[in-house]
Design brief:
By secondary structure, this protein is an alpha/beta fold. Helix 12 crosses helix 13 (318-329). The strands form three sheets. The protein has a six-stranded mixed beta sheet. A five-stranded mixed beta sheet has the order 10-9-8-11-12. The protein has 16 helices and 13 strands.
């Protein structure tokens, strides 16, 4: 297999930072050369969050007519290009030696087949981010729009990380690879193969947004607020009730913050007079709770590996991590309706679960898109478990080659945006 040097980029739903990792691929052997992170400004967080609300359930044409769309989009791409150019300059990276940038784009809406088929709606997914504009601003080819291909083939298109988890399991070993980002997602890797991958539910979503509304902090660093609070069992029940339809949906599935009714939950907290630190603690406990609850939905014919391999910034919060370990071992509080489910899950582990950090965890999601770009360059199908098990294969992504700065870009919205079936 050929060698590749690719910059992976991720700007997740949590909107905390732009993450970059420069990775060399020699076959399936991966070596991270360097990384770069730049926090989002609060202004950019607020502008994109406002745009998310206005793009919900809208078609490509409707979104393009929004007066603020072009400005927000272009500023978003310019900020990513600035970071890539800065990393190359600071780390002494010769751009001519970079084969591609793997670029995710910014997800603003998601209505995958697992949800659309129940609702009687047409599936779509919405990511913004012109790969062509990014290629022009950096002078590096860009591989992007990875989620459109699996969704247009009839699959959810998220999470995309399970094949990457399987690739790194060659050195890290089998396990349940669990991502703690804005949304949590997991992949069960047995014998080096991803057997299932799915989104679990909100992880940093409630925590970060609540923190930003009430403090000048971007998140609960080291659990400094959550550690001072206590679990509010009634709020825990309400949190599950508000998103019950999604949390109880069968696997595989992919989620979106729109499913979790964040505004209504924050209004509930205020109406009930729940203290700030108690609310933070309960949001953190809930992140761990739905991460375990999702595992109870895994089919009985899939072996539950004992290693829980963690990656993603959310796991650095000690309240979340400790709550996760307690729930796995039977020491944490469980809602009455789930007691038997959680007990059964614990019985599926041959040994007591071992919770450990991935050695490649800090930039897992950014590296994922570098890995996806490599597969596209080789025209190889990305081995998403549900697609492979259906006997199908899908090559993910589009490629943009650097040309020249343009006044108008036509790829600011991904191919599988709402209404793609009629285009």
């Amino acid at each position: 297999m050929a060698k590749y040097r690719i910059i992976g980029n991720m700007t997740g739903n949590s909107m905390d930072a732009i993450d970059l990792v420069f990775t060399e691929f020699d076959g399936d052997k991966m070596t991270d050369i360097c990384s770069y992170t730049e926090p989002y400004t609060k202004d950019m967080q607020e502008r994109i969050e406002a745009l998310r609300g206005k793009t919900y359930n809208k078609t490509r044409k409707e979104i393009e007519l929004l007066p603020e769309f072009k400005t927000v989009h272009d500023d978003y791409i310019r900020q990513i290009a600035k970071c890539i150019n800065a990393m190359c300059a600071q780390k002494g990276i010769d751009k001519t030696t970079v084969d591609a940038i793997g670029f995710h784009g910014k997800t603003l809406d998601h209505n995958p087949p697992s949800k659309a088929n129940k609702d009687g709606t047409m599936p779509y997914t919405l990511q913004i981010g012109s790969g062509q504009m990014l290629a022009d601003l950096t002078g590096i080819p860009v591989v992007y729009d990875f989620r459109s291909d699996p969704l247009m083939a009839g699959f959810d298109g998220a999470p995309l990380v399970p094949p990457h988890n399987a690739h790194i399991s060659a050195t890290e070993g089998d396990g349940c690879y669990y991502n703690g980002g804005n949304t949590s997602n997991f992949a069960l890797i047995n014998d080096g193969v991803a057997q299932i991958g799915a989104d679990a539910g909100p992880f940093n979503e409630y925590i970060d947004n609540y923190i930003r509304q009430h403090t000048d902090d971007a998140f609960d660093t080291d659990g400094k607020y959550g550690r001072k609070g206590a679990l509010d069992k009634e709020l825990l029940q309400e949190l599950f009730n508000f998103g019950r339809q999604y949390y109880e949906a069968p696997l595989p599935k992919s989620g979106d913050p729109a499913y979790y009714h964040k505004k209504e939950i924050f209004e509930y907290v205020e109406q009930k007079g729940i203290g700030f630190e108690d609310a933070v603690h309960t949001f953190e406990y809930f992140a761990a709770y739905v991460a375990v609850q999702a595992l109870t939905l895994v089919s009985e014919n899939i072996r539950m590996p004992k290693d829980m391999v963690l990656f993603g910034g959310g796991w650095k919060n000690p309240v979340v991590r400790e709550s996760f370990e307690q729930l796995l071992t039977g020491a944490g509080y469980v809602l009455p309706e789930h007691i038997s489910q959680f007990e059964h899950l614990r019985g599926r582990f041959a040994d007591k679960p071992v919770v450990r950090n991935s050695t490649l965890g800090d930039y897992m999601e950014a590296r994922l898109f570098a890995d996806l770009a490599r597969y596209k360059l080789e025209n190889r199908a990305w081995e998403i478990p549900e697609i492979a098990q259906a006997g199908k294969s899908v090559v993910c992504g589009s490629v943009a080659m650097p040309k020249q700065i343009s006044e108008k870009y036509y790829d600011c919205i991904n191919r599988a945006a709402k209404g793609w079936q009629d285009e």
